[in-house]
Amino acid sequence: MSYAPTPSQTVGPFYGYALPFPRGGEVAPAGDPETITLHGYVYDGAGNPVPDALIETWQPAPDGSRTGAPGSLRHDPVTGEVIGRDGLAFTGFGRVPTDADGHWTVRTLPPGGVSYIAVAVFARGLLHHLYTRAYLVDEPGDAFLGSLDPARRTTLIARPEASRTYRFDIRLQGEGETVFLEFQ
């Protein structure tokens, strides 16, 4: 007897129930004066906003350390429910869903030792999540940026807006598609 292969499962949007957690975009300790805001929209191939994507960010601390503090996903000891961050420790990790307009926001600290924040995108229709980088400055000496065609390079540079705020839109395909990384 032979069996037909099982169809592939996409990475979303089923994660909306369990993966987002309270204050998942509040990576910087509450009230830290060095806090920056990184935000943007996720767009599909037709240029429409994706209202059910999930964005994760990873980065080193401002001093360049990469260990982070434990505690991003704290649980209530009685109920076991996720209660989110403690608001004091910098973990270097953020996780936020897009809203109905495809918008996402993370408040964090400037990364130390690198000029970018690593980003992963989970969205409907994707068989695997996608990795990219949000560069806060166009780093002339960065080997990876230097290897890209100038038009593609611009898809990785977050645009400065108001004080300490950067916009980084993610286009999943089509015109202006964001450069995505492949890890083996």
Brief overview:
This protein is mainly β and 184 residues long.
SSE layout:
Layout: E1 36-43, E2 54-58, E3 74-75, E4 82-84, E5 93-97, E6 103-108, E7 116-122, E8 130-135, H1 143-146, H2 150-153, E9 159-160, E10 165-167, E11 170-171
Parallel strand pairs: 1-10, 1-11
Antiparallel strand pairs: 1-6, 2-5, 2-7, 3-4, 7-8, 9-10
Q: How would you explain this protein's 3D organization?
A:
This protein has two helices and eleven strands; from the N terminus they run ββββββββααβββ. It is mainly β and 184 residues long. The strands form three sheets. Strands 1, 6, 9, 10 and 11 form a five-stranded mixed sheet that branches. Strands 5-2-7-8 form a four-stranded antiparallel sheet, with no helix packed on it. A two-stranded antiparallel ribbon has the order 3-4. The N and C termini lie far apart (35 Å).
User: DSSP strand (E) fraction?
Assistant: 25-35%
Structural shape: globular
Average pLDDT over all residues: 88
- Estimated structural class: mainly beta
Number of distinct helices: 2
Q: Report on the biggest sheet.
A: 5 strands, mixed
The count of DSSP E runs of length 2 or more, i.e. the number of strands, is 11
N-to-C SSE string, H for helix and E for strand: EEEEEEEEHHEEE
N-to-C span: 35 Å
Helix content range of the residues, please?
under 10%
Radius of gyration: 17 Å
| Low-confidence sequence ranges | none
Oligomerization:
single chain
